[in-house]
Amino acid sequence: MTSRSSSSEIATKRHSLEAPNSMKRLLMHARSPWFWVESICFFIVATHFEIGEAGSGLAYVIKLACLGIILLPRFAIGGATIGNGVAWVFILACVFLSVNLIETTDRAVIAFALIAVGSAVGQLRDPNWDDRLIALLTVYLVIHLGGFIFQVGQFLLQGQILELHGLIFPSASRAYQIGTAARLSGFQIEPGTYAQWMLMATFLRCLLLRRIISPLTVAIVASTLVTLSLWAVIGAALFSAGAIIEAVFQSTVRNKFRATYLVLIFGVAFLIFFYSLPDATIRDSLTYLDVKADLTSTSGTDKVAAVGAIFERVFDVLIFGAPMGSRFCEACLSPQDVGIWANLIYYFGLLPTLAVVGLTAWSIASRWGPSYLPLLVALLSWKAQFYDPFLWIILGYALHPVARTAPTERVATGEGFEPRPTGTGNLRP
To answer: Collapsing DSSP states into helix, strand and coil, what is residue 195?
Structure first.
């Protein structure tokens, strides 16, 4: 009884110090010029963009180069290693490449490299890396969130959509106006892309912090709803489910109330913001969401056709996937819009995909707790390419074969740090 009580006191004390310690660690990283080089590279890797007629092809080559800038110096200088969990992904990638040997294309080779290097970044084993990755994610999320809030403010005040994505990347964003409402994207290329990439970055940050509910997480989830993306509604519901499960398993009454108050405060703030909008803007927003949810619309029928097509082809790719020169739904405009799960099955094979997803789910449930499984469902419904490196960074981290230490107090200098307790997920005493 005494041991359980003291453990609860330690957990409560640690949670009360987390915010200032997180800011302290971020400031420590910010003193290093190399941190800002890594931040720029990570921003490019985790932001979807296109380059003129080359589309996303050249963009992925640039992402691969940025991954190399982040990864290679840690081997050359820091003596980092790669966790053996990357072997599962590497085998999967090699089988994928062998399927494409007959019709080898530059796209298949680049996809193989992105999967291998992305998962290696996620599997990186270095005393400083977890803490560094938290700082990189925090900077990434704050910049994107700040840009989005600024764009929303400009639209509400002046009625114009400010182009932010085109200020950094070669192509303009696909933000657009709907009557008196607008679908905005901040620094991302599309409104839906903002919602999805931000929630996936938040998912990885939650894994690193071993905590779902935080002010930044709630603010980001709320901001995605402003994009009028139906996926954002689904993603927000899944994050809410994870937060509820986490609150149930919190070790102390104080933490339960802290999580509840945080969600209620942001929920009330969002409702106040929404209902303070002009009636015409609210009406146009709800009408748009209603149209997007209609399965008889062009977008809806396309998704239904894609789901039907993957189930028709599933026995053709039972063990080995299909080459990249083919698509499981030739008539569909964007087959990837049904989620990553469909493309993983088609290009990697059903059984290999089930093996990797099953291992990931088991790893997350056993090391972080059941509250993170709804977030994994959100990841599988992510409308990204199956070879996107950011996806494999997340999967690589989740597949780590050993219990990882959580962020440390002075990890930026490598001196005098004490790891937090690990291996219990949300089921802390």
So the answer is: helix
| Alpha helices in 159-190, H assignment, sequence order | 165-168
* Contact between residue 165 and residue 185 where contact means Cβ atoms under 8 Å apart: yes
**Residue 189 to residue 166: CA distance in whole angstroms:** 8
User: C-alpha distances in angstroms, 112 versus 59, 293, 342?
Assistant: 15, 35, 18
DSSP 135-151: HHHHHHHHHHHHHHHHH
H-helix or E-strand spanning residue 181: strand 181-183
Amino acid 270: pLDDT? 77
Q: Which two tokens stand for residue 279?
A: 């009636």
- Gap between the Cα atoms of 396 and 117, Å rounded: 10
Cα separation, 70 vs 90, whole angstroms: 19
Q: Which of 331, 300, 297 is nearest to 313 (CA)?
A: 331
**How many residues in the chain?**
429
Round to whole Å and give the CA distance between 45 and 353: 24
DSSP strand E in 219-265: where? none
pTM listed for this prediction:
0.85
Q: Which candidate, 148, 277, 326, places its Cα nearest to that of 223? A: 148
Q: What is the mean pLDDT of each run of 10 residues along the chain (429 residues)?
A: 40 44 79 93 95 78 94 78 82 88 79 93 86 94 97 92 93 90 94 96 95 90 92 91 84 71 76 81 84 72 82 89 84 77 93 93 92 95 93 91 42 34 37
User: Distances in Å between the alpha carbon of 62 and those of 59, 108, 144?
Assistant: 5, 16, 20
Cβ burial, residue 38 (10 Å; 0-12/13-18/19+):
buried
The pLDDT value recorded for residue 6 is: 40
Task: For residue 144, give both structure tokens.
Answer: 């994107």
Q: Do 210 and 368 touch, CB atoms closer than 8 A? A: yes
Looking at residue 254, what is its pLDDT?
A: 73
C-alpha closest to that of 306 among 342, 273, 279, 277:
342
Rounded Cα distance, 265 and 347, in Å? 44
**C-alpha to C-alpha distance for 252 and 9, rounded to whole angstroms:** 9
Predicted local distance difference test score (pLDDT) of residue 21? 66
